[in-house]
Amino acid sequence: NLSQALIDHLPKAELHLHIEGTLEPAMMLELAKRNGVELPYASVEEVAKAYEFDCLQDFLDLYYQGMSVLLTERDFYDLTWAYLVRVHADRLTHVELFFDPQAHTDRGVAFETVLAGITQALEDAKKEFGITSKLIMCFLRHLPEEEAFEALECACKHKDHIFGVGLDSSEQGHPPEKFARVFEAARKEGFTPVAHVGEEGTAENVRDALDLLKIERVDHGNHALDDAALTKRLADQQTPLTMCPISNWRLKGIPSLSASPVKKALDAGLLVTVNSDDPSYFGGYLNDNYRAVVEHLDVTEQDVVTLAKNSFAASFLSDGEKQAHL
Ligand code: ADE
Ligand code: ZN
């Protein structure tokens, strides 16, 4: 059908993607074997069966367990390369991806090992497929501020490869203000700030992330729409939102895909984008998320074109680079 062909044909950027969340069950088992890591699963089917989540924390527990198989530079290369090959088929031409270094340095894997594997795959994808990219380092919000400062210190040695800083992991109990100082330091060092807010948390978290962390893009931001004044502010300033419909549904942030706020955000004039978040864990890559929007929301083909255009408009590419992608 027409929408399907349109989705497949349109060039798109993905702006909310955790590289560790692309670890497919088959690769998880393969790397476990290669690295001699014990997993509580014996088969791909057993892994897939475990992926039933009642909330964000349910998912995070398995997400951190899954990444225990990632140890060497080659592992991070293979992980990143597999994602890029997969989304090249979805006509993705630009990606701004998150990585969670603290989840690796905490296990004794060097920051440089993680970064080298990811950046080599990104460079190869540029050469092979013409895919452009930016890397955003996330601070894990359930860990202390001091450890975020340690991650920032590592990032400062690699400004050539790390563009921005983000904030992810458990939103409940870890409000933006906990990271106000480290974000200020990161901004002073030239990193572009973004944050996961309003996923499980309230509109107040979104406002605080804008005011205290000075974020330039809102990751998720679903609950921003609960607040009319905040919605107007986001629309007036054209602050981008990176929404993730299948993720929201699988983490029970919304009861069904038809409850995704993507259409409401479009109608409110927000610069909203559609993304996959952690495609392996939630069972959908970039185009699956576009298809979910088309199938479950009352969107037009013009809306689909707008979403794809928004993905570049909301990116951190320069205006000239954005034009080259359209
Ligand atoms: N880490 C990976 N995916 C995440 C999400 N959707 N929210 C918070 N932290 C995450
Ligand atoms: Zn996310």
Number of domains: 1
CATH topology: TIM Barrel
β-strand number: 9
| CATH superfamily placement | Metal-dependent hydrolases
- Give me the strand/helix succession: HEHHHHEHHEHEHEEHEHEHHEHHHH
Bound molecules: adenine, zinc ion
Taking all residues together, what is the mean pLDDT?
98
- Separation of the first and last Cα atoms: 23 Å
Q: Order of strands across the widest beta sheet?
A: 1-2-3-4-5
- Beta-strand portion reads 5-15%
Broad CATH class: Alpha Beta
Major β-sheet annotation: 5 strands, parallel
Rg calculated over all Cα atoms: 18 Å
Helix count equals 17
Q: What do you see in this structure?
A:
Helix content is 50%, strand content 14%. Helix 9 links the parallel strand 4 and strand 5. The relative contact order is 0.14. The protein has 326 residues and is α/β, with parallel strands linked by helices. It has one domain: Metal-dependent hydrolases (TIM Barrel, Alpha-Beta Barrel). Helix 1 runs antiparallel to helix 15. The strands form two sheets. A five-stranded parallel sheet has the order 1-2-3-4-5, sandwiched between helices. The longest helix is centred in the middle third of the chain and has 19 residues. It contains 17 helices and nine strands. The radius of gyration is 18 Å and the shape is globular. It binds adenine and zinc ion. The site of zinc ion has 6 residues, from strand 1.
